[in-house]
């Protein structure tokens, strides 16, 4: 059977990578070196989720869960910047909850038009023209583009409706939706006809509200029996419940009162998210359906006093003859109006707080091991700078060293107990590992090394006078030993001097 409705799916996303910056030097007539003109790389495209009222299911993402956006283009010479990747917009139904791989809720797209950048694209790298300063006039390097976000997110659809119709299979919920609204759900004379929630819009006087036909519940639905557990999440957002009870059932051991008790037990066993009203604490009405059947009418008259004694408002209805539907629709409208008045309190404001001046931009964590201590640096800036560095270019490595020193990484490593030669990692798993040498001073702008090189990284330091003297004596001793070895070989007769002609 081909699925027609999907309310839970896992998306595998890959946002676009940023383009690399360009290293270029402008050349003109009579100006062979007219200054750097490398352009910046373009940013990678974001992946954005958009709450679209025209979308009702996640079926498209069930069939195609892998989505990616465009990469940014690299920069070029003559100050030509690379084009940014186009963002990818993914329309999802209103009421979609976005969660990360660990099940932590990221956003609830409960309003039409809401947008959420679920996978940000990578940042484009700067070209050498943007890196030029009065002291570093012709950089021989550019920054690389950073990779876009890549990972999995889970989408869960929770239907946004005012009233939820709950009841046993074949109780007439779909017929009631069709009778009250213009919706035309599938209706048949066998259980579990409804395999997906059906929405209908009802107008009662000046009130317009939506009703949701939740697939039939049976005993044990909250534990996974039947289809109820898969669709009970669609009841979470409803402000009122309507129990649709079948008064014409022919199944032995069933009656409207026992059906209601079973449904109440399943609703009580279903856990709602923190902060939401439990399902049984919400306004509830009871509809005794199929009273157009004479036996059903007699049964409805029999059980109605018991239900009213429990505190329920009871309506005897028939979806065939439309008996009692007008009164029921206006009663539901009253519940919806009351619920809307209670939730019409102003929504909490979104407060944008600027970043604290003294907020630490990175952390240094000491991790012990068999090979000694390892110092791991975590932070958005250091990790992004490492991703932007071309480690085949010494000048780019020196630029990274200057940035880390100005950020205070070297001071924090000293405080953590690092010594020259200590192993330092920037990033998490797969981060850049290097041996720390604090002797690299931040003075790259004052150096006159050729483009693409950094003299501080050269290991060929000038030998001292004592070192030169020791090297001279070692060479002299080696030559004397070589002459002595030749003399011993001559005396042993291994070779003789050639006679003069």
Automatic annotation (TrEMBL):
Primary residence: cytoplasm
Localization in the cell: Cytoplasm
Disordered: annotated segments: 62-88, 447-473
Names of required cofactors: Mg(2+)
InterPro entries: G_OBG, GTP-bd, GTP-bd_Obg/CgtA, GTP-bd_prot_GTP1/OBG_C_sf, GTP1-OBG_CS, GTP1_OBG_dom, GTP1_OBG_dom_sf, OBG_GTPase
Domain OBG-type G: 161-337
Keywords: Cytoplasm, GTP-binding, Hydrolase, Magnesium, Metal-binding, Nucleotide-binding
Positions contributing to GTP binding: 167-174, 192-196, 213-216, 289-292, 318-320
PROSITE patterns in UniProt: G_OBG (PS51710), GTP1_OBG (PS00905), OBG (PS51883), OCT (PS51881)
PANTHER family listed in its UniProt record: DEVELOPMENTALLY REGULATED GTP-BINDING PROTEIN-RELATED, MITOCHONDRIAL RIBOSOME-ASSOCIATED GTPASE 2
HAMAP family (alphabetical): GTPase_Obg
Name of the protein this chain belongs to: GTPase Obg
